[in-house]
Protein 1
Amino acid sequence: MNTKRQSASAFTFIELLVMVGVLCLLACVLGAGTSMNRSSSNSFQCLDNHRQLMAGWKMYSDDNGGRLVYNLPGGGAEVGKEAWVAGVLDFNNGNSANRDTNMLVRHDLFKYAAFLGPYVKSASIFKCPADKSFVTVAGQKIPRVRSVSMNNFFGERASSFESSTSYTIYAKVSQIKSPAALYVFLDEHERSINDGTFYADPDYPYSMVDIPASHHDSAGVFSFVDSHAEIHKWTDIRTMPPTSQPITLGAIIPGDEDITWLQQHATELK
């Protein structure tokens, strides 16, 4: 009776180590790729949000004889204090402005604010997907509703940081000479953002009144009068304070060229 022996094959220890090493390498590559895709997705979404905001901003102006939407600092709560969005953000868990999207889009509820609501519809475009700031309500983490602010030089009732300025404050589209060079909206640092206005101060070199966001790999998103949106890379670490630590607003930061860029693209000389 003939019998056949079947030889059993197995991995050697060296082969097993090589296979484990290859699997670990693949896991690292896939992990890095997933992280990069997530970052790219956030950037793409943020840029699209800005484009939609600019579309609403332009439609409001078209419907109002070329006048720009109100941009008075504050809560937009009463006549004479109109603001493009209602409410002032902070990290107070009891402050409804941190979580109430109606303050962004429901002009029917906020008569002196939320002016772009009838044009943009969705409140989600006011928040950068890379902004992870939140407040805690009843033990639950609630994402804050807004990341974006408006350039202080644009809008009805807009103002400069200084009581007297050498630069143009734009109340109408017709005043704007360089639409491709001037930003209207930008994402603001989580600990800097409060009302809907972002202040640049070109009358004083290296004056950082408010702080821009750097959510996208040390870069921030801006949208310009001509409706294009772009990601601008910061070069000075002082422009990018950690979101986990207290910050100083209204500082003079000598030599910070990021501040110079912000000032140069905020307005024009009269």
Protein 2
Amino acid sequence: MKGKSSLLIVTRSLWIGILSLALSGCGQSDPIEIGYVGALSGRRSQLGVSGRNGAILAVEKINQSGGSRGRQIRLLVMDNQGDEETCARVVDELVQKGVCAIIGPLMSKMAPPVINQTAGKNVLVISPTVSTESLEGIDDLFF
């Protein structure tokens, strides 16, 4: 039980830091809408579900303390099903909805579709777990 509690604290702290960074570049509409993209179904859903839960906790904590600079945050959660085509489609949906930031994806193979769908669209993308070297040196807003 202690391990789960520590993981929850670390995950929540990570998301709060990520959200603070992401929200600093958002426009002035109310509320601030950010997206979350992860595998919420399928064989590899454990990471996506855990990440979503951490993001939800971080958003709740920020909103309970008055929001970000007085503005509430709305998290739009999308399931990429661990599939690259689905990932590209749901990221495009988030971009069309006008999100200023996306948290995710959490798997390295999902990163290229996200980068392709957000290229030139001024959307900050933050993934705490993508680690592929194939993304090095690209001039984008993917962190």
Protein 3
Amino acid sequence: MLLNIFCAIDDFCKAFSRFWRRCLLTHGTAKRIKPSSLCLSEVMTLMVYFHVSRYRTFKDYYLKHVCQHLRAEFPGLVSYSRFVELMRGAVAPLLVFLRRCRLRPSDGIAFVDSTALKVCHNRRIHSHKTFRGIAQRGKTSMGWFYGFKLHLIVNHRGDLVSVMCTAGNVDDRKLSLMQKLTEHVLGKLFGDRGYISGTLFKMLFQRGLQLVTRLKKRMTNKLMPITDRLLLEKRAVVESIIDQLKNLCQIEHTRHRSPVNFLGNLLSGLIAYTFSPKKPSLTADSHALLNFSA
């Protein structure tokens, strides 16, 4: 998998680096650009590969695995402190790589959900300083938390279609959020009861996207096609993906030292998931259902 990750990232960096330097802000004085012993594609590869290495902390991963077992693959390795500095310059390329190269189309059937990204324990909210003024308190079905929300849309094959990160107090039904999140999604979008909104349904339906959710207990029952009802039962695929992102790709932890570190960890974790050879997806018995619904 390491080779596949590096080849994909290196191909992207060859085309991206030519435009990247033109967009960087300068002080107006010419400075010599000293190349690092690790190129951008190598830094990005090591950041992404951490999330499939099963190490719980990046420092242990770099010192005990990379420096001891991957020196042949990365002969220009630097010290851990220097690598942490190089990671800051890889956040923006990771974002472009995720959005331009790793997201996949919905093919008419998509599932939407959101999950909390806690940055500290609730008891330490008042003393937390790293994300002060950025993170917010929010509430999910699991209770209150302090941090951010990850909103994502996936297709029936388990591929990421669209992702967005917001503060923890942002409503899942916010029109501006859903308009941006579903910008390139058409067909049918299946969500839980947290997405019930008449205004949201009308906005999405006018642009060719039908939002399908379960009804609340006191809502008037309406007829629903049997295919939509069966696909609603398959909505657990997005919850399985969230479980993998948190427990295997480790996109959530409370040890961040800066907002840039949080973004780098989140983006590299999402990218690492896209390289997974076996993603949660609908079973073979559901393919006939998908063809029928199309």
Protein 4
Amino acid sequence: MLPQASAGPGLVLRTHHHREWSLDRFEMTDEQRGIITRAVIEQRTLIVSGIMGCGKTSFINALLPLIPERERILLIEDPPELRLPDTGNFIRRRVTPDMDLRQHVIAALRAAADRILIGEVRGPEAADFLEAASTGHAGLCSIHAGDTAEALKRLQRLAKCDRELVQEAVDLVIQIQRMPNGQRAVSQIQALKEGAAL
């Protein structure tokens, strides 16, 4: 409910597609598909960026089955939107009034997770996400941005850090775009580390 609405209470509904998402549902070149698949398997830290409604969450859902089953994955969301595969070692943690997203990210470091997933980075938790990624915890999250360059600038702004930390932590930024015909597509891939896009 939205008690702040001036003309009375409002209600926002977020619905989930019943269909399963895979990379086949996104337009991309064979080279892009190879880069993305290899980056997930090699535990690279990925940022999925795009404007609202472009399919960022759906794209992350398509990436989850690519994660090796041996990994210990910690997923932090507010609200819960990602669909976890039936296989794999996933732990889901939800944001509550007593424990915000940033506190969950800090706690994840003590949980010895191989990979930390955040549904969307939009606040000071960005700093802890970057610190975790730069010290050996692979990361995956989404962020609102119009292109990959804007995504990196916004991540730096949210984290209130220098550019060097972003470059140390992030391997790839993947831009998702919704085409005029409704099809989702990978429009950009920006690599920040040598070898991330080979």
